[in-house]
Design a protein that fits this description.
The chain is α+β, with helices and mostly antiparallel strands. It is 36% helix and 33% strand. Strand 4 and strand 5 form a beta hairpin. It is globular.
């Protein structure tokens, strides 16, 4: 990812993060994918009514899908409202999908969504990461690092 892509993510009014993913996994590689959504789904995302808790991606027939993503039904939607937890297709290049498929076959690796945001053109995008699971001692180290950083910040503010 280059600097201008990171700036666009920071400027996005909607940023739905998967905070638990960084605690559970080491991120090996990241990709940005488009989401195939219906009308009421994009409206709910623009209102921030989505969750990435317990989501993962899988590849079938050369297509990548996200499973477990919860997008709440749109309040003003009528009979045409969407299903909250359906599988949604992601849009990536064939080369990127093949790279992910090869890496996903290795033991200990998975594909997890990390962030949903709205780009400058108003389209919903998802950052996904090829991730390797952390062991229990890695998780304890992550907690310790966070606590140390918090204490350092407090010490700096105190003076």
């Amino acid at each position: 990812m280059n600097k201008e892509q990171l700036e666009l993510r920071k400027k996005s009014p909607i940023q739905i993060k998967n905070k638990k993913a960084s605690f559970e996994y080491f991120f090996v590689d990241t990709f940005t994918a488009g989401l195939v959504l219906t009308g009421t789904e994009i409206k709910s995302i623009r209102l921030g009514k989505a969750s990435l808790t317990d989501t993962y991606c899988y590849i079938i027939n050369g297509e990548i899908w996200v499973k477990g993503m919860n997008i709440s039904p749109y309040f003003y939607g009528s009979f045409a409202n969407h299903e909250a937890k359906r599988d949604r297709k992601l849009l990536l290049n064939k080369r990127e999908i093949m790279k992910l498929a090869e890496a996903d076959k290795m033991p200990g690796y998975t594909i997890v969504p990390t962030l949903v945001f709205i780009d400058q053109n108003g389209r919903a995008k998802m950052d996904i990461a090829l991730a390797r699971g952390k062991k229990e001692y890695d998780k304890r180290q992550t907690i310790k690092d966070k606590q140390d950083k918090r204490e350092m910040d407090r010490a700096v503010k105190h003076y």
